[in-house]
């Protein structure tokens, strides 16, 4: 997948490859421009990544006709496991972490999970471009070479959500860029490792149009043969 880079400007904006996050385009995201199968896999990707990160998936739905094509509602955990002690740099000794350090570690885990789950749809389309046989991307975009533009339009709110997490964690453009790149790559790894499970969820979503959290949990447990554990 192409790595995001920072476009020199007064305000940091996440970009993918050489393309800045777009706000408008001639590409239509409904009807033929947004295949139902892509909507199902896109939202299933969010659900699978969120579930594997220990988030609670409330609902996924592709029945509504909208530019986004669907929705995945999930909630990040209320608590995270953090280190109670850390090694003193350059020594074999350990010291107890402070309350401030533990809070910072928990907040970082929350923001990493938020960004990773948010970029799951982006990662799904990265995989679909690398494996054309999946036949998930709109044929018109594939023919016209506008799949990156379409991806950014479909995932605009997701990218902005990940960018908010990056801003909370880093003060520099370089740090935010790396945060986004790592979250995107992590989402892709989770999807690849759990592809059979995602296919099961996407197929059920295509058939039913909507799945509640209990159904997603049942499908994921059956496909992975185990429950997820909270990150940390």
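^ structure tokens above, recovered residues below v
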């Amino acid at each position: 997948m192409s790595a995001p880079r920072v476009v020199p400007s007064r305000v940091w904006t996440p970009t993918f490859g050489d393309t800045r996050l777009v706000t408008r385009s001639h590409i239509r995201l409904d009807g033929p421009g947004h295949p139902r199968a892509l909507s199902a896999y896109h939202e299933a990707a969010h659900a699978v990544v969120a579930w594997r990160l220990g988030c609670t998936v409330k609902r996924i739905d592709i029945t509504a006709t909208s530019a986004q094509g669907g929705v995945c509602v999930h909630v990040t955990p209320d608590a995270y496991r953090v280190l109670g002690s850390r090694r003193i740099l350059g020594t074999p000794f350990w010291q107890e972490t402070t309350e401030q350090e533990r809070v910072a570690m928990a907040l970082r885990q929350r923001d990493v999970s938020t960004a990773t789950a948010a970029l799951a749809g982006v990662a799904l389309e990265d995989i679909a471009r690398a494996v054309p046989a999946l036949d998930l991307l709109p044929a018109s975009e594939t023919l016209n070479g506008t799949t990156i533009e379409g991806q950014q339009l479909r995932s605009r709110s997701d990218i902005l959500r990940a960018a908010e997490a990056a801003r909370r964690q880093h003060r520099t453009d370089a740090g935010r860029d790396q945060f986004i790149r790592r979250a995107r790559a992590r989402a892709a790894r989770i999807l690849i490792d759990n592809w059979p499970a995602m296919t099961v969820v996407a197929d059920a979503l295509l058939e039913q149009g909507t799945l509640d959290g209990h159904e997603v949990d049942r499908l994921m447990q059956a496909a992975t043969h185990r429950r997820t554990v909270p990150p940390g």
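The chain has a mean pLDDT of 79.
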